[in-house]
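User: I'm writing a tutorial on reading structure tokens. Could you give me a worked example: one chain, its sequence, then its tokens, then a sentence or two explaining what the tokens reveal?
Assistant: Sure. Here is the example chain.
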Amino acid sequence: MSMEKNIIISSLNNLAVVLHDGYLYEFIINDPTYQVGNIYMGSVARVFPTIKAIFVAIQINRKSKNGFIHANDLFALRSKKNSTLSTIVVIKQKLCVQIIKEAFFGKNPRLTVNITIPGRYIIISPSNKAICISRKISDLDEKSYLKSLALLLRPISSGGIFFRKHAGRIDSSIILDEWKTLKLRWNLILKIINQNLEYQSFLVYQDSDILKRVVRDFYHLQIGSIFIDSQQSVKRLKSYLQRWSCLLLNPKLNILIVQKQLLENFKIYSAIAQASSFRVELIPSGYIFIETFEALTIIDVNSGIFDKQKYPLDLILILNCSAAKEIAYQIKTRNIAGVIVIDFIDMISKKDQLELLRYLHKLFKFDKVQTQVVQFSELGLVEITRKRIGKSILELLANSRFNFSKLYFSPSFLTSVDSKILPANQSSYLSARSNLNTVRSYMCTTNYALVLDSTIIQYTKKKYHLNRIIQETKIEIQVFQNISTHR
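And here are its predicted structure tokens:
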């Protein structure tokens, strides 16, 4: 049975969600401060030859902030191969820079002078002559065709071209039209810079349209439906789909409008609250604790069984595999990066440890972020390293303007729209998880008057205290087929 994939776009809240079988797969929100891809005009603040880096002052929300540029990101300014930093840049020199890595945990954002203008099928880079093709395009004939197309454009492109994964099997006329659009956008950026040379630093270009970003970066042909909450946004959405010929390639795509309580009907707030919780329940038994620091995440797996001598040893591998499945999902959904240390339930058998490692490798095989699973340590811990790309869901929620906890614990959480409009849930595992969240929310809002405020959605120790309160009141969370039997 094929997986049902849908996109939920709330243009009013400036956020979007990608669902696989009704389960949260990707969380997209436009940062109100700044985001990767923004182009600024800044001035060199400091030069550090010892660490081969410079700091450039840029203006973010009318405040000056220093961005970090490594010497490797300054090759566009080099006139000679052996040029030093002191010969490339000087203090207060104006530079056109672009954010390539967002700031996190108090660190400055990383910048580059190698400006890139992204599209759905190609990315142009006016400062270099490179031709790159995505690794996800595996057909050799298609790669040769795209390379030939780039070589034909090179005399008039005056820049590099990178073909994205969506460029495979796309007509050349569509790619040429997008190339012309990106060139016009670059000429507009140059015009804005030339008209504002008297300013020391300012924002040149910002990609702030959530609809454009979703269609360009997250839409693919396997998407069955797009749900949106505004009639006006539908016109813009269709214009982007038509611009990139998405409707032509996928004529069965459904665009549906749910004007009232779009996020509540799809239980998006519940999924976001779960993705930011300190404790996550497992199916059929057990739970995991997730604690994140700056570059280290600790995950502890608990079976939930007090008398461990009464269950067979084979059950340990089953519980650990169930926990590994949930851990892989939580890491991808929360966009956890850095070093991840997992403490699974102790396994004596080396064969079971190898089987668990094979299962972990299989779970992270299709992760779009570079992930490496290390062997079991002498203490029985599994180490995972994951490259940081973008902000985690917790950082996005911390910078957002919305209060998710009030809607998560509100009676409107239990409402739903016509089942004919909403997609059917095709996974028993995900259905059980959804029912588990529904029962937990129902019991918290009806039978027990817990005092909850907006701070519980923050990823802090208060979540641990909240779970202790629930445990002390002896609330038993079970998976029910029909919640109406408990009303």
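What the tokens reveal: Confidence is low (pLDDT under 50) at residues 403-487. The chain has 14 helices and 21 strands.
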